[in-house]
Write a structure and sequence with these properties.
Blueprint: E1 4-5, E2 10-12, H1 19-22, H2 32-41, H3 47-51, H4 64-77, E3 81-83, E4 89-97, E5 104-115, E6 124-125, H5 132-145, E7 152-156, H6 162-173, E8 177-180, E9 186-192, H7 195-205, E10 210-214, H8 216-233, E11 244-251, E12 258-260, E13 263-266, H9 274-281, E14 285-291, H10 295-311, E15 318-322, E16 327-333, H11 339-342, H12 348-351, H13 354-367, H14 371-375, E17 380-383, H15 386-394, E18 400-403, H16 409-417, E19 428-430
Parallel strand pairs: 6-10, 7-11
Antiparallel strand pairs: 1-5, 2-3, 4-5, 4-9, 5-11, 7-10, 8-9, 12-19, 13-17, 13-18, 14-16, 15-16, 15-18
Helix pairs in contact: 4-5, 5-8
């Protein structure tokens, strides 16, 4: 049973700052260039909390976590950050253009706090594995600041769209808080404090199973700190605020739910040799090449290549390859390839994913890049934008790039609810949820 609660959010004081100057992308998406931009945007930008520095040149003696804590306390004292007087839930929408297209969409959801559950309770499900280093970083930051700034992105299934119908009513009746981020995404927030509305949402969510879309490391950090609090107090208080974490909930049937692919860049120590690789892959894939000799031919070849890759979404299981050399290539799974035999240790649902074919057949069998090397990001890099991935090869930043189609939301839900997990970076839910748009302090008692 999903236990969703309202909370008294700590939010930026819109009378003292502009949201566009102070909110950031999630901590793991902040590049060095973005970090510099955030430092310059406002002295109250969230970046010193997320990264623990007051500027890029900060060399003070305090460690990054205690510095972040001091910043939070200072901003609360100055009322840069203020806590809502009443517990609420927060309708949150994002209007955006799908990258690489002209399609405009709006993703709807709401922010509340949800009970942190062990995975074996079968209430919250993961779809990706996590690494220890990011969790250790977030754990220590939360120990010091006691403030959750980043959103956990949770999916639930509601074909009738009952909560979204209510969201439609809220967004039509009130004027939102709004900001536009660096990607042109419009983020809008509507605080809702009416207890009747909150009770209705809680009731609708009670029987839902929740799948983590984004924020696996942050979720497991919340689990860790919940357990720490239990050990420290010597008991389990199910009404403690530490039993909950801040979450944004989005319906899998939302028209604005978009998953983008994450392409794989190859930077193997031994290089990439196309012809031996081609011969090895003929056991599994049919091969089609789009050659070019000049810029005009290249543009045409690239367009045909991308068209062929997109056609693979119909179930033909196609992976793209570019390694320079005047050609783009498509690898389409052979009709006689017996995946049940070839990948006998992988579930049937997993075998339907192109990213699994890429990792198990192409990277592991074709290039000898082991799962351990992938986990350590040795020899493999990641790029969301297809054009940027191709350009990385042309600039010599990678030896080759494998391009894939995105997983479908139905596949993600089936695998997660079945207790399975995908390779890392198998999904890229777009756009990201802004950090700092609402913040949760897990102290004292949870609201009801």
């Amino acid at each position: 049973m999903a236990d969703i609660r309202p909370f008294r959010a700590i939010r930026y004081n819109s009378e003292k700052v502009k949201l566009a100057d102070v909110l950031t992308q999630p901590y793991d998406k902040i590049t060095p260039a973005m970090q510099e931009k955030y430092y310059a945007a406002s002295p109250y930008n969230l970046i010193p909390v997320e990264k623990g520095k007051t500027s890029a040149a900060d060399t003070s003696a305090d460690n990054v976590y205690t510095r972040a804590s001091k910043v939070v306390e200072e901003w609360l004292a100055k009322q840069i950050l203020v806590q809502d007087e009443q517990p609420g839930i927060y309708v949150y929408t994002q209007e955006f253009t799908v990258p690489g297209t002209q399609a405009k969409k709006t993703r709807q959801g709401f922010i509340g706090v949800g009970r942190v559950e062990d995975y074996d309770a079968k209430v919250v499900f993961r779809h990706e594995r996590t690494l220890s280093a990011p969790k250790a970083d977030r754990i220590e930051l939360l120990r010091q600041t006691r403030l959750q700034t980043g959103q956990l992105f949770l999916l639930y299934e509601d074909a009738a769209r009952n909560i979204e119908k209510w969201i439609d009513e809220v967004t039509r009746a009130k004027t939102p808080l709004e900001m536009i981020d660096e990607y042109g995404v419009a983020h809008r927030l509507w605080p809702v404090f009416q207890r009747e509305a909150i009770a209705k949402v809680r009731k609708e969510m009670a029987d839902k199973k929740l799948v983590i879309a984004d924020g696996h490391h942050r979720y497991e950090t919340a689990l860790h700190l919940r357990n720490e609090a239990r050990e420290k107090s010597g008991r389990t208080d199910l009404e403690a605020a530490s039993e909950f974490a801040m979450m944004t909930f989005v319906n899998t049937h939302s028209a604005g739910l978009v998953i983008l692919p994450t392409h794989r860049l190859i930077r193997a120590a031994g290089g990439f040799n196309l012809e031996p690789f081609r011969k090895q892959m003929t056991e599994y894939f049919d091969w089609k090449s789009f050659s070019f000799a000049n810029a005009t031919e290249r543009a045409k070849a690239c367009a045909e290549f991308q068209k062929g890759l997109r056609a693979g979404r119909d179930g033909s299981r196609t992976i793209g390859l570019y390694a320079g050399g005047g050609a783009f290539h498509l690898l389409t799974l052979r009709g006689d390839a017996n995946l049940a035999k070839i990948l006998s240790d992988v579930s049937g649902a997993q075998r339907e994913l192109d990213v699994v074919l890429l990792h198990r057949l192409v990277l592991e069998k074709g290039l000898g890049i082991t799962p351990e090397a992938v986990a350590a990001e040795k020899g493999v890099g990641y790029e969301r934008e297809m054009d940027a991935a191709i350009a990385a090869v042309d600039k010599g930043e990678a030896q080759a790039v494998f391009l894939i189609n995105p997983a479908r939301i139905e596949q993600v839900m089936e695998i997660a609810l079945g207790g399975d997990v995908l390779p890392q970076k198998s999904t890229d839910f777009y756009p990201k949820l802004m950090s700092g748009i609402a913040n949760y302090r897990a102290e004292g008692k949870a609201e009801k």
